[in-house]
Amino acid sequence: MTTDWVQMSKPADFSIEGSQVEVSLRDGRKHRVEVIEKNSELVLRAFVVKQAVVNSLPTLPLTIWERNRSVTLVAFRIDRKNRLIAECRVPASGLTPEEFQFYLRTIAIEADRLEFLLTGRDQE
User: Domain of life, per the record (predicted)?
Assistant: First the structure.
């Protein structure tokens, strides 16, 4: 089953390039979300901070664990390259454009918020 996520990403605050959607946020900040089609779901993935930041924060695993307990749609994890990423899995069946846009904005906002809390700036 293929979902036409590109068609569902048409609002003015989204800019699409390949498999990525750049979401414009308040105060001129932006955050990129990668869209990966897997079987009957869409996996939304956003970069939060690079390896150097992860390595410099020894309490980051506890921070991520606490964050994952309080955020319901987005999960944070350290990937194989030792970067912090945000991830959201969306069932494709019956997905409306409004729902998809909500998921895109939510993961972008949560990833950007944690990025700012950890670094104080916009890394993109």
Answer: Bacteria
